[in-house]
Amino acid sequence: MSGLHPSLCDIYEEVARRNAGEKEFHQAVFEVLTSLGPVVDKHPEFADNAVIRRLCEPERQIIFRVPWLDDSGTVQINRGFRVEFNSALGPFKGGLRFHPSVYLGIVKFLGFEQIFKNSLTGLPIGGGKGGSDFDPKGRSDAEVMRFCQSFMTELYRHIGEYTDVPAGDIGVGTREIGYLFGQYKRITNRYESGVLTGKGLTWGGSQVRTEATGYGTVFFVDEILRAARDSFDGKRVVVSGSGNVAIYAIEKVHALGGIVVACSDSSGYVLDEKGIDIDVLKDVKEVQRGRISDYVEARAGAAQFVEGRSIWEVPCDIALPSATQNEVSGADAELLIKSGCRIVAEGANMPCTPEAVKLFAEAGVTFAPGKAANAGGVATSALEMQQNASRDSWTFEDTEQRLAEIMGRIHDSCLTIADEYGQPGNYMAGANIAGFIRVADAMLALGLV
Ligand code: NDP
Predict the structure, then answer these.
(1) First CA to last CA distance, the chain
(2) Pairing relation of β-strands 92-98 and 164-167?
(3) Does ligand 1 come within 6 angstroms of the Cβ of 323?
(4) CB distance 374 to ligand 1 below 6 Å
(5) What are phi and psi of 167, to 5 degrees?
(6) Does domain 60-191 have CATH number 2.40.40.20?
(7) Local confidence band at 107 (pLDDT 50, 70, 90 cut-offs)
(8) pLDDT at 1 (0 to 100)
(9) CB 242 near ligand 1, within 6 Å
(10) Which residue owns the Cα nearest ligand 1 atom 28?
């Protein structure tokens, strides 16, 4: 199998056979396995103890029915998922995604990625992920609340601050976490703050959690630039998406002197050559819950909406794909390379297709994979858990400083490990290997469980 160490081919084939049709999960596993050849050569104990095969099989998978009543009184049925993938380093930890495209293969890909990402943070958190095929778009507040309450009515028995700690992801922000936490509290009669992260600031949330994934991605790129004795100053940046990750990535790029000229949603992108106006964007997306096309109206002629086209046709120095998986195709990568893009850092999970990643490598474009570049979100969730456990709350500045330090450490450990395994400057290999080794060592120490 092209690109895989011979001893890993069987593992990949077993994953593909046992998880038929789950193509995103196959892709995520393949991508990690491509980096592990030198590791299995150096550490035969991992193969002897079937560590990689065990890592590819979730510890527990839960699928459940979520019935709820819409505003017209009609019964709606969705499917809920929680995949508890690996708890060698700590309680399962990872977000919930509410989007119509969610099925078991998406949840498994995200949960698998989460194991390595959480390991890279150096914090005591295992990997998991969950969600539902519920589509919050166009639903009233009351419908979202009833859905969340029904979802938690099943999920509550599987989670807990020492067991499994969900958070947000696509379609799940502070509003949804609030409804989920409220229902958990009601059912269990416990104010167990550490059971969910991404909470509001007045009820157990952490400063900087909302900003963390976007800020963290930009801190990571700042480290890449610094390592090349460069900076964000005057850099032209394109950020896809206009949700939680994208908004705060844009905010931080501007704070560091770059200019974000385009962002998007699933209907198209907006081009604003003077730089995306972050206050207008927040108002449109966070307050009004509108579409990205509404941004143009609010900017009164300063920006342009381009419907149904790829945002990657906009020339840039730095690209931050921050919407969803596989949003950067091989053709998109060619556009980016042609326009002179030098750095691609994944704010989203697996937004770049394998073809795109290969083209970036061939063209010498620095590529930072999501499991490293977007780890700031989950790292700050772990900081939220620390504050909850000690009944404490830290200031914005203190928490942001800790986030910046964590991103710096992740950056350095990717580079150090990539070097050690003979692939200098390869952030993907560094992230996969560094993430793998910490969790694999813990699995060995814990015995055959
Ligand atoms: P949000 O729901 O806040 O925003 C998602 C954005 O992506 C929206 O603008 C949405 O547009 C767009 N989008 C979603 N699906 C598609 C699609 N098929 N095509 C084009 N655009 C799409 O989610 P987040 O910002 O939280 O998450 C974005 C990515 O970042 C995901 O991959 C997530 O897994 C990852 N991530 C998030 C973390 C977090 O802390 N929130 C942590 C680490 C990673 P539309 O409204 O049109 O659907």
Answers:
(1) 30
(2) parallel
(3) yes
(4) yes
(5) -150, -160
(6) no
(7) very high
(8) 66
(9) yes
(10) 323
Give me the mean pLDDT over the 147-174 stretch.
Answer: 98
In this prediction the pTM is 0.97
For residue range 71-90, what is the model confidence (pLDDT) as tens digits?
999 999 999 999 999 999 99
Indicate the top mutation candidate among 144, 170, 332, 378 to test ligand 1's pocket, ranked by most ligand atoms within 8 A of CB.
170
Q: Which atom of ligand 1 is nearest to the CA of 209?
A: 40
Instruction: Report domain extents, the chain.
Output: 1-57+426-449, 60-191, 212-364
What is the pLDDT, as a whole number, of residue 345?
98
Ligand 1 within 6 A of CB of 377: yes
- By alpha-carbon position, which residue is closest to atom 7 of ligand 1? 323
The CATH architecture that domain 212-364 belongs to is 3-Layer(aba) Sandwich (3.40)
Contacts of 65 (CB under 8 A, 6+ apart): 77, 78, 79, 80, 154
